[in-house]
Amino acid sequence: MSTPKLLLADLVNGANHVPSNYIRPISDRPNLIDVLQTSQTSIPLIDLDALNGPNHSHIIKQIGLACQQHGFFQIKNHGIPETMISNILGIAREFFRLPESERLKNYSYDPSKTTRLSTSFNVKTEKVSNWRDFLRFHCHPLQDYVHEWPTNPPSFREEVAEYCSSVRRLVLTLLEAISESLVLDRDYINKKLGKHAQHMAMNYYPPCPQPELTYGLPGHTDPNLITILLQDDVPGLQVLTDAKWVAVNPIPNTFIVNIGDQMQVLSNDRYKSVLHRAVVNCNKERISIPTFYCPSPDAVIGPAPELIDDDHPEVYRNFTYQEYYEKFWNRGLATECCLDMFRSTSSAFT
Ligand code: OGA
Ligand code: NI
Fold first, then answer.
1. Atom of ligand 1 nearest to the CA of 292
2. pLDDT at 350
3. Which atom of ligand 1 is closest in space to residue 290's alpha carbon?
4. Percentage of residues in the chain with pLDDT exceeding 90?
5. Whose CA is nearest to atom 8 of ligand 1?
6. What is the pLDDT of residues 192-231, one digit of tens each?
7. How far apart are the first and last CA of the chain?
8. Alpha-carbon gap, residue 248 to 229, rounded angstroms
9. Is residue 39 over pLDDT 80?
10. Residue 349: which pLDDT band, with cuts at 50, 70 and 90?
11. Dist. CA 344 → ligand 2 center (Å)
12. Ligand nearest to the CA of 280
């Protein structure tokens, strides 16, 4: 007798149909032929090197505009070496190729676990499953979590720890630039995050025999502050721009940065946490590695007082990140943004 499969990759290996619990209702399918396939720069590509030169204020302006208009931008000259990028993608690929019994050592359904391998989004609460397996773990402060991480591939802990520290440095630079773009003190956002937190995921999207019926991840906004996404060379990420889904096709050695719900709150709605999704394809597996930078659970988040005035009343109430995060995982991925549950009572009727 065979045991039921917990992970998608083991369930569908070689399948020629999507199992029924992955099939979306007709009104909720990706409509792949309607997706805009524009040029590579469908969202702005910003050169971070120029932050250190005479064009500093021009780059700050570009970042501010991208956060306002797209909620997304891509970055080059970000300081993370190409070898580190190819190593981390290689480690993720190797991890998902390990034998089932080895991968399952990390398996858990429970979103509150700080290191876990799982599948779909939240298996306990969702009705339709997503075409994804993922390894998710906390990574700041490193010494609190590294001992929980997988030990296979053997270099996992060492290489991933280096990557996390580099991405954290990059995030801190971006937070200064974003604070500056909002005309706040450069350390304003940094100081609002309590002790800070950093989570990372390795998403594995297996090839799918009928990609028009299902999602890797359906449309959602990210609940955290800011996300730094690394994707391999297989397309799949799409961003909602002017009510149309636009493909963000991979550019080697760049990262995609997106504004999360907490940044929308801090900026009192100046900056947008925008809907995005991952679709799958028939031929190729796809790997993406998002870093979710967050406030620590006890940090109190609310609109910056400097951004509230008669023309811009306070849009959200204050809350702890823990309160927000629990709501996010329990309600499932829904197109309506979780932010609506935190609107300030004074703005709810305007
Ligand atoms: C996410 C996400 C997109 C992708 O993990 O929140 O949006 O391309 N991922 O994997
Ligand atoms: Ni996301």
1. 6
2. 44
3. 5
4. 84
5. 237
6. 999 999 999 999 999 999 999 999 999 999 999 999 999 9
7. 60
8. 12
9. no
10. very low
11. 25
12. 1
Residues 60-105 pLDDT 10s: 999 999 999 999 999 999 999 999 999 999 999 999 999 999 999 9
d(CA 109, CA 124): 7
pLDDT at position 212: 97
Three-state DSSP string of 202-242: EEEECCCCCHHHCCCEEEECCCCCEEEEEECCCCCEEEEEC
Q: Are 106 and 137 in contact (CB under 8 A)?
A: no
8 Å CB contact between 251 and 289: no
Residue with CA at minimum distance from ligand 1 atom 1: 290
201 CA: nearest ligand 1 atom = 5
Cβ of 180 below 6 Å from ligand 1:
no
Ligand 1 mutation target, pool 132, 217, 289, most atoms within 8 A of CB: 217
Task: State which CATH number among 2.30.30.210, 3.30.565.10, 2.60.120.330, 2.60.120.10 fits the domain covering 24-349.
Answer: 2.60.120.330
Counting ligand 1 atoms within 8 A of each CB, the residue from 200, 237, 291, 329 with the most, and so the one to mutate, is: 237
Alpha carbons within 13 angstroms on the beta-carbon side of residue 130 total: 30
* Residue pLDDT, tens place only, 153-198: 999 999 999 999 999 999 999 999 999 999 999 999 999 999 999 9
